[in-house]
Amino acid sequence: MGTASTLVQIQPPTYGNLITILSIDGGGIRGIIPATILEYLESQLQELDGEDARLADYFDVIAGTSTGGLVAAMLTAPNENGRPLFAAKDIKPFYLEHSPKIFPQKKGVLGSMRNNLKLLVGPKYDGKYLHKIVREKLGETRLHQTLTHVVIPTFDIKHLQPTIFSTFEVKKDHYLDARLSDICISTSAAPTYLPAYHFMNQDDEGNVREFNLIDGGVAANNPALVAISQVTKQIFDENPYFFPTKPMDYGRFLVISIGTGSSKVELKYNANMASKWGVLGWLLHGGSTPLVDVFTQASADMVDFHNSVVFQALHSEENYVRIQEDTLTGTDASVDISTKENLDKLVKIGERLLKKPVSRVNLKTGLSEEVKNGGHKRGDLEKVCKIAFKMKGDSEHRNR
């Protein structure tokens, strides 16, 4: 294995101008939605910088949880030529091809009953195909080898605390230098859907660390704040990568946070309903899992609320872009219904989302509301691309 003592220094694309962060939520097959957004984002950078431009060239940090963690790894793992293993345009076809095998659907009423009964004795899916395809695609690549900084949250079920796989932390905590495949399998191990994941990792001094991990979404389904915290910690530690940024200088952050959609407008649960639920009711209601819906949505929204308040309070609201769709209904909101019809529908939802007006969260209702004269989300992304491209150009000019 590569060791943390032999890390190749990841070059900062912005060299102290703006700290650029790309964050991708968890959400199972709904990862198709951010995949569609990312494809557009990268295409805009290619228009500015040529067809070889990749997202990893422009973002200091790419963070992802669960399905977002897999996307982050795919965008930053190197191929044999030292370039990103996947272009953003490759992510959506990956989901369309492999989701039906990761989440095989049993047809008919009997199939649905078998699925529900299976939930009582174990996870809904065995995870074998997911493990196979992730190991096949990511191979032996380890965390320290990513082409830009990566932050992927997981949760240790044995110690009941988050484990954050971060290229920043791996420099001093060498035991975190795990294979990207192990990290992605861990952050995707959603309770009730996929089995928890155990693996061992050895550092360069021969010390072995045991990991007992589940989906990072139980702690940070929206990893944007974890990514910001990782950078802030580096600033406190006077990492020269971020000199001369100050910890609360949010004007130096440029954050794009991409959600996987939610079903808030559907109002599918209420207190009268939930007051009658026992263990089974919280785990299974109308084909969904209320407990999982609640903790993943709660953690994602709390992060969005925090970031919205802080960026607004520090007069940097233009530097925080949250792209989320709140109007999913029925199977659209599922994390695992992998029929062709549903997957195609998610692609269309992502495409429609790009055309929607720029919005920001209403801190009272929790819903996104249109920003007056804000244009559309494509315009927001185009503006971000131009800033990121300019920052890269400026840094290259200064370092010639």
TrEMBL record:
GO MF annotation terms: monoacylglycerol lipase activity; phospholipase activity
Pfam family, one: Patatin
Annotated motif GXSXG, positions: 64-68
First and last residue of the signal peptide: none
SUPFAM superfamilies assigned to the protein according to its UniProt record, in alphabetical order: FabD/lysophospholipase-like
Keyword Hydrolase included in the entry's annotation: yes
InterPro entries the UniProt entry points to: Acyl_Trfase/lysoPLipase, PNPLA_dom
Keyword Lipid metabolism: yes
Positions occupied by motif DGA/G: 215-217
Protein keywords: Hydrolase, Lipid degradation, Lipid metabolism, Plant defense
Primary enzyme class: hydrolase
Similarity-based family: Belongs to the patatin family.
Free-text domain note: The nitrogen atoms of the two glycine residues in the GGXR motif define the oxyanion hole, and stabilize the oxyanion that forms during the nucleophilic attack by the catalytic serine during substrate cleavage.
Record function comment: Lipolytic acyl hydrolase (LAH).
Protein name, UniProt field: Patatin
Organism in which the protein naturally occurs: Actinidia rufa
